[in-house]
Amino acid sequence: MPMFRAFVPKWVRPWIYVVQAFCFQFSSGLYMGAMNNMIGENAWMREDVLMCLYATLIGMALYFPLLFRMKFHFTNKRLLCVSAAVIIACSLVALLPLPRPVLWAICVVCGMAKIQGTFENMSNIQLWMTPKRDFGVFFPILHIILLTSIEVSAFLAAEFAFLHHWSLMHWFVCGLMLLVLCVQVLLTKPFHAMPQIVPLKGIDWLGLLLWTALCLQVTYILNYGDWLYWWHSPQIRLLCGTSLLTLAVCLQRMWYHPQPYFEPAMWGYRHVVPIILLIGVVEMLFSCEHVLEMVYYEEVMHYADHIYERLNQWSLPGIWAGCLFSLGWLRLMRWNAYKLIAVGLAVFSLYAAGFYFLADSSLNSEALRLPLVFRGFSYAVLSIALMWCLHEIMSFQHFFQALSIFNILHMFVGGLAGAALHARGLNYYVADGFARYSGYLDEVRGLQTPVDFARYMEQMVENLLAQSVKILFGWTLYAALFFALLMLLWDIPGVRRRVKHMQTWPRVGLQVLNGVRRQQKLLRLRRKRSKME
User: Fold this and answer.
1) CA 531, chain centre distance (Å)
2) Distance (Å, rounded) from C-alpha 251 to C-alpha 256?
3) Phi, psi (deg, nearest 5) at residue 145
4) pLDDT of 191-201, one tens digit each?
5) Contacts of 369 (CB under 8 A, 6+ apart)
């Protein structure tokens, strides 16, 4: 690693980059572990804080096509110093009372700096982790860092908010970024990865801006849709129309611009669309973590943020086990990814089944530890398997563009769509429960068995919420089992060959209809013969 100065021991150098990668991954625009504290202090809604999170993820996802261009244009030291400085500025500015659109723009920039810093650190130690650039090794190790950082940063934010104030997490991240700056200034020197600097000409900056606007519009619709009651809101109707116009402009630019931000050739690779859609389905399944679990913990069990985050740390052993399991599957055994995806979905079904059978208003939180371990294991396995599948079918030229689309569904769109469905399901089942049980509340029964009505209604609401959460976890369990069986079925060579050569659905439908008509005709002939006899 020639970017380090000579006095730095060689065995320490890669570990410095590992620590710096953790430091960058701890950063964010706002921190979900302190959500309730920010809501109470700033008079925000939950959707406002979530929108800041999704804006950070939008910046991370859309910046992927620029990562190598930046690495080949700037020195390693400059990229890390600028990324750390931008995160410090964004963390401090986010503490100010700003309008929400301005805060969203700051979060987008913070997400771009976060992924740039993380990529620069991990790309420098890739050959140290796997000298042959085997992504069956690199992806599991990468996800150990990424997923561990997500859980630990949420835990730290909740603890800081509980012990002192939610802004302490911002100051903590600023301290980590100052540590990165000190390391870069004192221990490294400017080093360029390429013998000749690659210019930044030809980047479609307007295309990046348009795709960012489209993602923000879609995120706003899915995030605020349930609160604004979807099509009954003029805001949602207006945004749906403008997002369609933005999408049309983005597609027109993709097809007709000489150097678009996303090239049309990216969609021509075999199986790229099914893989991207599958990650969307997986994220919709995992959205129950952000909706059903949160409703259960906050409204039924009445846990504070720091209690929930402490309990959520039980997903870390599952994450580490899932990453090591994927490493053994892809690198040591070299088995195919179909069964690995099926294993991840099967373990996810164990998590959903755990909450389905255990969720209750009087449950001890220790009983939920094992389902959380299953959730961490399945999320790690599915994230690694699907990213590995995408890498196997793509060339280097289009891999990071496809990875950007992949992460758009992986980071926020898939989860938002699933969250919207789960929120809609909660509204339906809670209202249905009230409609069914309100008939038992009348003056006669109230006089026969006098009770504290307020306490009774509180318990009733808690039980209805717990019951609704159980029902939706049951539907999620059915969906997970269906897709797990589908992946196992797809792995059978004979079935896979037949499915690929299957005729179009209208033709299949006509053949079935003709078969039914032939059977009816034969049945009529038999009846005529029986009557004649």
Assistant:
1) 67
2) 9
3) -70, -45
4) 777 767 777 77
5) 311, 314
Query: How far apart, in whole angstroms, are the C-alpha atoms of residue 158 and residue 173?
Result: 14
Q: Most distant CA pair in the chain: distance in Å? A: 106
Q: How far apart are CA 159 and CA 165, in angstroms?
A: 9
pLDDT at position 320 is 92
The whole-number pLDDT of residue 506 equals: 58
Res 504: pLDDT:
52
Distance CA 495, CA 489 (A): 7
Phi-psi region of 199 (alpha: psi -120 to 50; beta: other; left: phi over 0): beta
d(CA 471, CA 424): 13
Helix (H, G, I), strand (E, B) or coil at 142: helix
Extract the tokens encoding 368.
């939920």
How far apart are the C-alpha atoms of 103 and 97, rounded to whole Å?
Answer: 9
54-67 mean pLDDT:
87
- Using CA of residue 54, residue 58, residue 61, residue 66, what is the dihedral sign? negative
More confident residue, 37 or 173: 173
Taking CA atoms, 482 is separated from 122, 292, 328, 349, 479, in Å, by 36, 20, 26, 10, 5
- In the chain, what percentage of residues exceed pLDDT 70? 90
Count of helix runs (H) and strand runs (E) in the chain: 23, 0
Determine the Cα–Cα distance for residues 349 and 344; give it in Å rounded to an integer.
9
Choose the most confident range, by mean pLDDT, from 24-33, 70-79, 111-120, 328-337: 111-120
Judge contact between 116 and 80, C-beta under 8 A: no
The vertex-497 CA angle with 495 and 501, nearest 5°, equals 115
Q: Under 8 Å CB-to-CB from 33, ≥6 apart: which residues?
A: 153, 154, 155, 156, 157, 158, 159, 161, 169, 305, 306, 309
* pTM score of the predicted model: 0.83
pLDDT at site 85 = 92
The DSSP call for residue 410 is I
151 pLDDT higher than 70: yes
Residue pair 422/291 in contact by the 8 Å Cβ criterion: yes
Percent of the chain residues topping a pLDDT of 90: 5
Closest CA to 390 of 283, 489, 270: 270
First-residue to last-residue Cα distance in the chain: 96
CA 194 to chain centre: 34
Tokens representing 208 are 């990046």
Cα–Cα distance measured from residue 178 to residue 42, given in angstroms and rounded to the nearest whole number: 28
Nearest to 26 by CA among 181, 163, 157: 157
pLDDT of 333 higher than 80: no
pLDDT for the residue 515: 66
Region 478-501: mean pLDDT is 67
Task: Give 377's pLDDT tier (boundaries 50, 70, 90).
Answer: very high
